[in-house]
Amino acid sequence: MMKILFIFLFVSLLASAQTDMQRWGKEDISYQSKPVTTGKNSGNESASITDLMVSSFIHAYRILISDVDGDNCAFSPACSSFFVESVKETNIFQGTLMFADRLTRDTDFIGRESQYPLALNGRFYDLPSNYKLNTLEIKYIPPFAVVKDE
Amino acid sequence: MKVCSYKYFVILFLMNPSLLICQETLEQQYQYSLNLFNKERYFDAVTELKRLNFFDKTKIYAYQSNMLIGKAYKEGGKFSDALRYFTLAEINARNDSDLFDAKIFSVRVNILRRTTDQAFRILDRLQFDGKFTNRKNEIYYWRGWTYIFANDWLNAAEQFSKIDVNHPLETLCDKTNAEMYNVTEAKVLSYIIPGAGQFYTGHYLSGLLSLGWNVLWGYLTVKAFVDQRIFDGFVVGNFLWLRFYVGNVQNAEKFANEENLNIVNHTLLYLQQQYQGEKP
Amino acid sequence: MNKSHLILFFLFFIPFQWNKAQNKIDFHSSDNIKLFADYLFCTKDYLRASDEYINYLSKVYSDSIEFKSALAFQKTGSFDEALRSFKKIPLESAFYLSSIEEFYRTLFLKKDFTGLRKIYSQDRTTDGSYSFLTRLDRLSLLFSEDSLPDEENFISPFPQNERSFIKKFYKFKTSPPYKSPALASILSTLIPGLGKVYTENYGDALFAALLTGVCGYIAYTDFNADHKVRGWIFTGAAAFFYTGNIYGSAAAAQIYNAKIKFKFETELNDFLDVFHYLSGVYNFCK
């Protein structure tokens, strides 16, 4: 019952609003398809030297190992991206702790469907901002809901 | 006397209410809505068409107004609403030609929102209905477009060739299909030789790395078994060799799909921006 | 005389018949605008209905149309216009009491809880709308961080069929069953994974314990077999997972708290919807 409730709420929230509640105009529809993302993104500007070092290390790891052994992370953003983002948003120590916790949660294959929401690419949606020990930044999204992020 | 009687006439004339108030016919209201539609003021066009529908008690304009509302919603990207009104237009069709046109618009909306199964269903019903044999070329045309959006370029080319052997879209679809990579072939190549599928799709570095890792872990696994270190062999074989081997096949498939997506998007961009024929 | 009568006849009668024959309609007469606007309102096309009502009211004033116009504003989220329109309904109108209720409801929908509570503290009426205002006042307290009155005072304005829900919401708001991140961390320090058991993440707890335990065990056997390098690597891995779990247990407690707060808010919104706090029931559309 709760699951259905959550799905209903989020689908209705995230889907487009009731059509004619706002004035609308011509919409340019693109014929092209968007590629399916894997959750491994390059990330943007680095702030400090540790950020740069971690970024470069992860880039090298991606090219030599991660891109070759397949897309094995059940989460989106993938664990390596999560690590880079965590370090960027906090610091190297807290980022490492967040990464260790993420690896544990990645290894745990029991009961994930009822714990995490889904990203568009079918993986579990799990942002670093929920794990920074900052209650103001935690955004709880119920399981089974599909997050239409960007 | 003359002046008085003149005033008398004018007053009575002006008392005629139908001359004082601006009244329109349904046709004038329809033309006004059409004008708004042509100026791309779609929201307002829908309002005026709904007004027309409300006062059109005998439903003379029901088909035309519902079709135009559907087209307005289609232009605004509101596909569910568009389909609803095209269905209403079908119900109010005055003849077979109207019915066919309404159904074709439903097909076009389904193509745009990529619900190609529904588009095929409508086209099948049109094709197997004896009433529309004179319009079979249109059915082939839109079936071709549906195949394009269902990413089946070979069947799309076949549909266009039924209209005309030298149809420009037939040539385009054939060309696109020929350029595309065979995903199964890429996977099979990588099953046999790790990295071969990646080479096939032009990703040389990834192919080399795949080959390298698979050779390394394969060698270490076999060596472990040969040296009777069975546990080590299982660990290396399962957690390392297998992982890189499966990743290799996955990458072959992924790269083939990525390259195909690029090719397809290139063609779709041409169709959207440069092709002059009728488009969904 | 005869000639002038004939001219009169033609000047008057013919244009009238000509218009009728052409089926001319005055689409923009006040009556027709009202008919069309009501139709739009009843088919839930509120934005268009709103535009038509504004058009009508610019020519003719009617309290019922003003009321419907205000409702249309409310439905399309134009809360300030809705508030203004509800205020315009005169005392003599049949819609006066409803307009007061809708005014309060619009403030609530707009989430202007301060404004709502200010009116509640000032209002001294005793009619039905005051009871509605009282209930909205109580409900607004559930959305803010202000202190709540005692339970009896809080629940009493509500009818019997709503009280069990209100009681539940009151209990959650006054003493939410939050988990402590500090306690979660301490538990995980004592036994790896215990903190995550406390936060009800049982799978994560198991694997945290396994990863720490297995790495620790391998480190132990390596040191025993005098494989110093391997020993230290696996000790590092064990420490990595151990500290990660302590941190992760605190984070899991915070996420648990966010989860139950979300559930509370969802249930509260469902209650408001089902019991008609978010939209009134009228019989404008048969």
Helix content of chain A: 25-40%
Instruction: Give the strand content of chain C.
Output: under 5%
Low-confidence stretches of chain A: 5-18
When the domains of chain A are counted, the total is 1
Average the pLDDT over all residues of chain A and give the rounded result: 83
How would you describe the shape of chain C? elongated
Keywords:
heterotrimer, A: 150 residues, mainly alpha, two-stranded parallel ribbon, B: 280 residues, Serine Threonine Protein Phosphatase 5, Tetratricopeptide repeat
Which helices and strands occur, and which strands form pairs?
The complex is a heterotrimer of chains A (150), B (280) and C (286).
Chain A: H1 2-14, H2 49-66, E1 75-76, H3 79-89, H4 92-107, E2 118-119, E3 124-125, E4 146-147
Parallel strand pairs in A: 1-3, 2-4
Chain B: H1 2-14, H2 17-20, H3 26-38, H4 42-55, H5 62-75, H6 79-91, H7 96-112, H8 116-127, H9 136-149, H10 153-163, H11 168-179, H12 183-192, H13 196-200, H14 204-226, H15 230-273
Helix pairs in contact in B: 3-4, 4-5, 5-6, 5-7, 6-7, 7-8, 7-9, 8-9, 9-10, 10-11, 11-15, 12-15, 14-15
Chain C: H1 2-21, H2 30-42, H3 46-57, H4 63-75, H5 79-88, H6 96-109, H7 113-122, H8 128-141, H9 151-155, H10 160-174, H11 181-190, H12 194-198, H13 202-224, H14 228-274
Question: Would you kindly provide a brief summary of this structure?
Answer:
Chain B has 15 helices and no strands. Chain B is an all-alpha fold. Chain B folds into three domains: 71 residues, Alpha Horseshoe (Serine Threonine Protein Phosphatase 5, Tetratricopeptide repeat); 65 residues; 91 residues.
